[in-house]
Structure formats: C-alpha cells, structure tokens
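Quick question, first post here. What does this chain look like in 3D?
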Amino acid sequence: MREQKGLTEYSNGVDTAMKHFSSYDDQNPIKMEAIVAGPISLHIQPRFGEQAGVSRKMFEAEQVALTAAGSAFHTGVALQKLGIGTGLMGKVGDDDFGRILLQALEPYGPLLTESMIIAVGEASSCAIVVEKPGREHTVIYSPGCNKTFSVNDIRYRLLENIALFHVATPALLPCMYQNNGEGLLALMQQAKERGVTTSLDLSFPTLLGVKPEWNEMLSAVLPSVDVVLVNVETLLFLLRRPLYEKFTARANKIKPVDRVSPELVSTLARTLMEMGPKMVGLKLGHRGFYLRTASFALLEQMGRAQPSGLVNWADREIWAPCFKVDVTSSTGAGDTALAGFLLGLLRGMSPVAALSAACAVGASSVEAPDALSGVRSWPEIMERLAAGWPRLLPGKKVRTPLDMEAFKWRWSETDEVWLGPEDSRY
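> Answer (accepted):
Ran it through. Tokens below.
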C-alpha cells in the first residue's frame, strides 16, 4: 500500500471550505467571494458519427450541441463547483444567443449570472466548431460584443466586497490591449484601488487585431496584478519569440512544452516577476504547475485574498508534478487548474497544497470529454488525494528537460514537489 504523504498540506483550510458546499437555496445562500471576468462565447458544435454521410457539400451530423465556452467560463464554473461563491463577468447581447448563454449558467447556481454584463442592441459572441473524424477541426468565430468589452463595462461596485478578481483571456478582448494595454492597465488599477486581490490569466494572443509591444505592456500592467498565471508556451511567445518559433518548428517530434528546461522556466518566471506581480504561476501541461513568489513585504500588499501564513509563501520556487490519469480530453484543463490554485489562495492553503489543488483539479478535468464534467467538489478531490493519488514522474536515468535533478532541483519526498534553486526552503 502506498504511503500517504503530506496530508496535512491538503487538508489545510478544508474545514472552512466545507462550509461553502451548500445547496443553492434561499435558506442557505452562498456569498460571492470571487469574480471571473473575460470573454464568454456560445459554441455551436455539430457532432458526427464514424460513418457521417456526405452529399456534395452537405455533411450529416448526428446532433448539434450548444455550449457555453471560454476560459472565463471554465475557470469560473470550476471555482463554483469547488465551493467558492463565484460570479462571472462576461458580456453578452440581448439576443437569442445571449439568452442561451445565460441559461447555460443556471445549473451551476444563481451567483454566476449576477455579475454578467448585458449589452442592449449588441450581438453575443459565438463560434461554430467543426470536428469531423479524420479531419483537422475548424472554428468559425464571431467575437460579437467581446469586441467592444472594455474597462467601462466592468461593474466595479461588485468588486468592493469580494476577495478575488480574476481576468481571463484578455487577448480576446481587443479594447483591453489597444494602446499597449491601456484598458487592461486601467482595469487592474481600478480593481486594486478597491482592495481586491487581482489575478490575470495571460492567454495566447489569438485573433488579436491590435499588436502591443509585449514587454512594454506587461511592465506597465503587472505592478497592478497580484497573481499572473500563464501557459509556458504563451510566455515563450510573449517574451522569447525566436525561441518559441524554434520550438514550434520542430513540434512534430517533441512538443514545445517538453523542450522547455527547468532553467528556462526559472528564467522566464524571473523576468515576469521583475515586471511587478507578487506571484507567477506557469501551466506546463502534463509536466505540472510551477510557482514563483515575491518577498514577504510584497505579499503583504496582495489584498483581501492574501494567502495565510505569508512566511511559508514568501520567496518560493516550487514545481508540482501532475497526477496520473487516463486522459480523455485536455480542452480547458489549464483553466480548471487555475481554479484549483485560486481555491488554495482563498482557503488559506500552503503553497504546496495550493499547487496540489491545481494539479488535482486539472487532472480531474482531463478524465472527461469536456472541461467541467470531470471537476468534482473539493471534498471528493481531497478523498482521492488522501488515498494516495500517484504523481506523474519521469523514469530513472532519463536526461531530458523533465530530469529535474540534472538542473539542481531538489525533490521533497514529504510534499511530493520539486524545490528550485531559488526557493527559500531549498
């Protein structure tokens, strides 16, 4: 039987969290603790069978699914499922698609729609997603009112009584990136003025009409961001474009994420930290989740979702491996992993426990065909961790970018994480 390790880390703050696993009724309402802002879109997805019929240019679909989608939707709903009272602040039109999007949120509880923005006379965002067996999938995207979503749409009054304000996928909100991120800077500054902890998910700049100077924009925006979260490949694109292109040009044999060495991860995180955030979290797919934090004095400025036990959080460099699972689909898993990490902040967990929560929620997500149906309540995930959920670790005598010891990282047997050379507990 596998030894159970570090269970006190996982249980830290769980008694408090359990108070929030109530049903959605008038007698036991859940208080809003977090708001997730960002683009939300209606996905129209034909589903084909293996023998889908074809007649000239007409394809036969077995059914058509209408689903809400987007990083803000995935992260917000995952937080809600984990027991955090969460509102979504997406912008939808007063059209049929907007009504369908709002209806799609209702099963997850009333809080999610309370902070939504309804744009009168505007069209809601939608995407037609075609994934036919044996063919490359195609997406036809209509930005709708995401194209006009600006700093002036934010319902700032709602930020005054919550702990965490998370902004997801600003790259799909062109108004936020115009003039080198002027709108995003104003948004984060106004949020910080209200005492809330700010979190930003820097997504890949797909379909972005404006092209900011990334170093200049991030240097201006990130001092107003407490927690910046980003996929390592996206960070490569933003900060090391030639290296990103080199890695992706050879991606047919080895995935770009597997070419990134621990040394490069540390360098990228250090560069981002120097721009002003209090924490940097890097999503590394099947390789896990990396965390870098600032000094005690800077962490004290984090706002209402400031982590408990700042001594344990200060000057940390930690890399948590993934948990072993059978992967069904990785779509949206990174978004749900962020929800796990933010849960850790809001529930007073240690950094090790917060990283384990991130990896556990992300791992649960990939076991299902969609981003959210695999995400369970936090007590259910806790039970799996306590039962000795094994980590995904490289084999012995393997010198690859996954070979952490070759890059002077130290394995903590108790916590089941790697400690980097710049970690205060190294």
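The chain has one domain: 7-39+72-91+149-391+403-419.
Residues 1-28 have pLDDT under 50 and may be disordered.
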